[in-house]
Amino acid sequence: MILLDDQFKQALPIIDKIQEAGFEAYFVGGSVRDTLLKKTINDVDIATSAKPDEIKLIFQKTIDVGIEHGTVMVLWKDASYEITTFRTESTYQDFRRPDNVEFVRSLKEDLKRRDFTINALAMNRDGQIIDYFDGQNDLKKKMIRAVGIPEERFFEDALRMMRGVRLVSQLDFDMDSETERAIRMNHALLEKIAIERIQVEFTKLLLGSGRKKALALFIQTNLFYYCPGLKSYKKELEELAKLECMIDNRIIAWTLLIHYLRIPTTKAELFLREWKCSKKEINQVQSALFALEYRLENNFNRQVLYQVGLQIALDVETMMECLEHPVNFESVHLLDQELPIHSKKEIRINGNDLKDMLDRKPGKWLGDLMIEIEEAILAGSLLNEKQAIFDWVSHYYKK
Ligand code: ATP
Ligand code: MG
Question: Is 150 within 8 Å of 182 (Cβ atoms)?
Fold first, then answer.
């Protein structure tokens, strides 16, 4: 019997209300797995024998997040819970999504269609574990094993192959040899899967504590071959797999990857776009790549730090440590404290002030002048005060 974590306790009234209405409901998936591993849980997922319409009759506030797949979101006391009807996924024809979701009334049927034994565990409201596929034993053995016949499971949904290697990394587990063999044999099915979904798993792989092992599997099984832009980089990926340090965030993950693949900064955007990274993330990685290249040759100066910002500079320092170069986090913080401004917004004068002062129509000159003011303030040759800037501009314009 498991002592319920607060997150589960908060969700108990939901399970109870479903049961009072005459249906079954259990905690399932990652939260049960992580509880048994004594890890902090992300989100609590609930599986139930009630159909979506029946769930919507029980709760007042619900959102249809994926009703065709049987998922309804219930809003309950400032939190939200995904409640999914027990289902089987009968016919798969395109190796990605079930053509046909069939709702069933049995928990066992639902757990059977889940990907790995450690993810096919359920827990009832009293903390009792339901384990039809020996998932607890695999948790003890630290083993990722497909539920049932691995080959069939990867044919149903090829993303599971990526989920398997990402779990190896995230949990620092090993992969069962039959499961691994089935991935190697069927790695090409990954081609059918939407890049966005592969990206989620690959990023988690890079961030996990078992990254070394997982990357080795990712290469040996040839999964890398069907990932955007990695096909011709086996050797470079093997080098990356030797890296020891933890990777703390997504920006560091993508920047280090591009650094190891020796993709020129000019091609980085295309690479990241192929991976369907967000515009914002692409910009951040480009900044980080520029800053890393700079930092490999120099210490940070005011201009570079101002340009990329403190967070990226610290990420770069972390990467330098990873790459076994000498680092100095303290000096980055000190340099940041010395910066007279951290962004344009902090300049104590704006375009309107300048236009009025000089009595000129706005035009390109205004932007150019603002940049010069910004640079002078940053370099310390101009004080960031309204009067000082006015004086500087009148002097500058006389010239
Ligand atoms: P995380 O802690 O990273 O959220 P998770 O195991 O909870 O890991 P989710 O993607 O949140 O992963 O999925 C929740 C559960 O749904 C899984 O534990 C698994 O039981 C099931 N699941 C998710 N994706 C698949 C899939 N492609 N095939 C089969 N079962 C899946
Ligand atoms: Mg989850």
Answer: yes
